[in-house]
Amino acid sequence: MAKTPPAPRPTASDPYPEWRERRNGGIDRAVSRFLRARQRRKQFRKASLSTAVEEISRQSESLARRGDGELQKLATLLRSEFRKRGMSDELLMRSFALTREVSRRVLGLRPLDTQLLAGWIMVRGGIAEMATGEGKTLAATLPACAAGLAGCPVHVVTSNDYLAARDAKEMSPIYRALGLEVDAITAELADESARRTAYRSDIVYTTGQQLAFDYLRDRTAGRVPDATSAARRAISALESPERRDDPLLRGLCFAIVDEADHVLIDEARTPLIVSQQSPDRYTAAQYEAALELARRLRRDVDFELDLKNKRVRLQPPSVAALAEVRRSASLGPLRQQPWEELVELAVAALHLFRRDIDYLVDEGRVAIVDPRTGRALPDRSWELGLHQLIECKESCETTPGKETLARISFQQFYRRYLQLGGMTGTAREVTRELAHVYELAVVAVPPARPVLRIHGGERIARSTEQKRRMLIECVRKVRGSGQPLLIGTQTVEDSLVVSSWLRDHEIEHRLLNATTHREEAEIIGCAGELGAITVATNMAGRGTDIRLAEGVVAQGGLFVLSTGRG
């Protein structure tokens, strides 16, 4: 039997470039993985990396004597050569050297050798492990500019919308000096036409959620082009250059993922679901009846709770009672099984989903809180009627039910990129998983300067009252020194408790959590001022850069006080 030839490797010039799920057999796949792993080891050898950094440094020094006009001509020439010769080491080095010199001129920031090293690791499809404060934002511009000049659409994936907008704005002078377009796509950019225009930029800063949902929308709307001829696509474009059914994305070409371990491993199995309104499975009266009955049921008698998996199991006596209630109440045409399922969800809504921890109520709407980031997810909803039950529980107007159109996990999504690179400060623990799942090598980047951070150790409180006293004592001590203080909490509820403790002692502070997200930029901008006290959930965690005001370093820098273990 003839062997099926392998599918051609997708390229950035395809109508919608992406890797589809690989279907090759076990032996073929094992051999391919072995060969790719050997290639990764070769290109990430220390000697090879050092040679690249030294050559980039040498070339960038020679560019310092060139005028701005000459640098622009070099960028134009690089574009042409990339298209002719591909992303060869020689051209990548020239691009890195040019980007380094341009950054020095337009931002006053000249990427350090360690940032060159990190950028080289990323552009070659690896994860750069960089310590906090080593300049990951600037390092990401090096591979982004190289790929952009080569005509490859680049997605720089940040932890949240705030960072996407901030980084795109702050790094835009570098891109524009090289003739590249940059934009940010956040949840606030709701207009589909505006999103499509933003995705046409050479470099797009956004979050994984925005990318994955737009990818699913393209597929469910039938906007992913098939492998039609280039001539046919060109004719279609001329006939209707602004068609509304054009895809949002230009495919999945090159992603640079910040906080890669969190995005690629911690959130790997998180399902991303695109849904549409559907006929309601239950009526408002049925939701209210289920909640009323659930309030009368007794834990460990009528039901059991699985706290870890957030599940409810009704006990036999309560099931019999449910049947009696269903028959006596005016619940409409509702069979016994759906009624039991609805009551189980009602018990879960009452006992397993907590306000200001799992969700918050903002302007009469229930918004899910992301447990990892502490951020509200206003566009997300729970399935099967759970969201509507929580809305009833909180006396909010119930929203229409939804049915799933498409779903994908982050792991499945990122594996479809033609090229994937990233950076993080904590990848060593997940090196094996990154290699196995994504075929990504982790390379440690040494710090450019000695680490000045001082670890003050841990103190364990026996009670909430003792913890309160210890925290207030520490806050007063730090406030006396003039150092800015960042108090980290695990949940919205924890942040509110700590804030109340500070108010009770008339200690002025700012609060940053999912309920104050609209003031995030201003709060973070002031958090590094002398004497500033900020209470925050892990919204102010990964990737957030708190800039220190003048005189703060002399007082000891930013003091970070964590109130719990993550």
- Rg value: 27 Å
CATH superfamily of the largest domain: P-loop containing nucleotide triphosphate hydrolases
Q: What name does CATH use for the topology of the largest domain?
A: Rossmann fold
Flag low-confidence runs.
1-7, 227-233, 239-243
The largest beta-sheet arranges its strands as: 3-4-2-5-13-1-14
Describe the structure.
The protein has about 575 residues and is an alpha/beta fold. It folds into three domains: about 25-270 and about 410-445, Rossmann fold (3-Layer(aba) Sandwich), CATH 3.40.50; about 280-400, Alpha-Beta Complex (Pre-protein croslinking domain of SecA), CATH 3.90.1440; about 465-560, 3-Layer(aba) Sandwich (Rossmann fold). The protein is about 45% helix and about 15% strand. It has 20 helices and 18 strands. The chain has helices spanning about 25-45, 45-65, 70-85, 90-105, 115-125, 135-150, 160-175, 190-200, 210-220, 230-240, 260-265, 285-295, 315-330, 335-350, 385-395, 410-415, 430-440, 465-480, 490-505, 520-525, and strands at about 125-130, 155-160, 180-185, 205, 255-260, 270-275, 305, 310-315, 360, 365-370, 375, 400-410, 420-425, 440-445, 485-490, 510, 535, 560. It has a seven-stranded parallel β-sheet with strand order 3-4-2-5-13-1-14, sandwiched between helices. A four-stranded parallel β-sheet has the order 16-17-15-18, with helices on both faces. Strands 9-10-11 form a three-stranded antiparallel β-sheet, with helices on one face. A hairpin with a 4-residue loop joins strand 7 (about 305) and strand 8 (about 310-315). Helix 3 (about 70-85) runs antiparallel to helix 4 and helix 4 crosses helix 7. It is globular and about 85 Å long.
